[in-house]
Amino acid sequence: MEIDILDFIEQCRHLAKQALGKHAGEPASGGFARWVHVVLHCFRVEETHSYRETPNRLKYMAEVRDALDLDPDDFPDHTTLYKSFVRLKMWVWRALLRVSAQQHPQSGHAALDSTFFDRRRAPSYFRQRAGRTIQTLKARTLTDVDSFAVLDVHIAARWKHDTKTGPQVVRRNADNLQSAADNGFQDWHTEYEIAAHDVEYLVHYRGSSAKAAANNALNRANGYAQRWMAETSYSTTRRSLGDAVRALSWCRQFREIVLMFAITNIEPLCEPL
């Protein structure tokens, strides 16, 4: 998606401070405020820059530097950015995802679905030394059916069945949901656990039988139509940011995927070029 980069930076600055709360101004790596690091990582992933390229690009972007309150002679080093990505705990990136989703209209109805991210971008020599044979990460998301905003994401390298992880994603967001559904997550235990949180479990059936047609008509009346809402959010993310993670370690890859979905939520808030 083509966006105005300055507007994107300002949106990220506002949301980063909101996500960090009272911790926003606390110094992090290199003595720079935490919100500055969060915005710099948003900028890095959005522009697909490396850690080394990011500070070099900022040297020629005076308006962006001003928005970040950065002195032209005092930039975070690329090694500082590299370290801060992990030093900022996972709750920071999840909080950014949550507040970015809250900027969109919330229908209370969500689609559960799964997608995959390739982790083979790391050099094969590094993967062999680390003994890593897993080539794909699985991300299960909760997507609002009206705004297509990604509300939450669960990432795993070991692919448990969706019925084992779907309730976990719903449970974290139960206070803000009226319904959640996808037939790939359906079994009696899943339906029972989701219903225990006062969230209606809607399953869209295939086929043209009278029972399936009646069930699907009721689902549409209750706010759920098809799983294409989640697929649309995946397509947007892949076209904008790619379908692979570039980080090497597990913790960085998990953070990168959460950040990618947060950026996908932020991009529609920015004025196009």
What does this protein look like?
It is built from twelve helices and five strands. The chain is α/β, with parallel strands linked by helices and 273 residues long. The protein folds into two domains: 117 residues, no CATH class; 126 residues, 2-Layer Sandwich (Nucleotidyltransferase, domain 5), CATH 3.30.420. Helix 9 links the parallel strand 4 and strand 5. The longest helix is centred in the C-terminal third of the chain and has 17 residues. The protein is elongated, with a radius of gyration of 20 Å. The N and C termini lie close together (10 Å). The relative contact order is 0.16.
Please summarize what this structure is:
With 273 residues, the protein is α/β, with parallel strands linked by helices. It is built from twelve helices and five strands.
List the helices and strands and how they pair.
Layout: H1 5-20, H2 34-46, H3 53-58, H4 62-67, H5 78-87, H6 90-101, E1 109-118, H7 124-130, E2 136-144, E3 150-156, H8 162-172, E4 179-181, H9 188-195, E5 200-201, H10 210-221, H11 228-241, H12 250-266
Parallel strand pairs: 1-4, 4-5
Antiparallel strand pairs: 1-2, 2-3
Helix pairs in contact: 1-2, 1-6, 6-12, 8-9, 11-12
